Amino acid sequence: MGLDELSLLFGDYLPFLYTVVFFIGLKAFRQNTSLTMLALVLALAEFSMYVIRDPLWAWANKNPAVPYDIRLLGWYGCWVVCYAAMIILLLKVHEWTNITKSNPVTYVQQALWGQGTLQLIMLANALTFNLKPISLFYQFAIPITNVFIALYVMYAILRNTIHVDIKVTANRNSGL
């Protein structure tokens, strides 16, 4: 199994992973928080991108009636729009719910901005020089960033839901 197949397989499970993380956060916090809003927006966005991915791929790769440049613009442009929409939606959801944006939301927004920028770089590369190193970097960077975003969101929610209290007692006669 190649990296392309592995990244698509992981991408297939992202919407469900974010949904589970959302419900874990909702149950643990018993209210909407910045982290639960983050997980909810990511879940909804990933479900949406999951639905359009295969038809868009088929259109971009198997549609000789449309010029190649337009197909490239459609493929990469769609993902840029998705990432921008996710960033804006995260801002708006926090504004609408009057919840203060947490640091993890800012970090995920930066990662999404990076992914959108990488899509634009890949589009420029595909339209001009078609350099293999840029294509290889893209092939690895997008799935790795998706994995790190998912792991980071899970970590952030679990870190804020698991509380460990350590009590230390000292006895005066213990010889210390």
Short précis:
This protein has 176 residues and is an all-alpha fold. It has one domain.
How would you portray this structure in words?
- The chain is mostly helical.
- It has one domain.
- The chain contains five helices and no strands.
- α3 packs antiparallel against α4 and α4 packs antiparallel against α5.
- The longest helix has 30 residues.
- It starts with a helix and ends in a 15-residue tail after the last helix.
- About 20% of the residues are buried.
List strands and helices in order, with pairings:
Elements: H1 3-29, H2 34-61, H3 68-97, H4 103-127, H5 132-161
Helix pairs in contact: 1-2, 1-5, 2-3, 3-4, 4-5
Instruction: Give the fraction of residues assigned to helices.
Output: over 70%
Number of strands: 0
Low-confidence stretches: none
Gross morphology: elongated
Tell me, rounded to a whole number, the average pLDDT. Answer: 88
Name the features:
single chain, 176 residues, mainly alpha, 80% helix, 0% strand, elongated
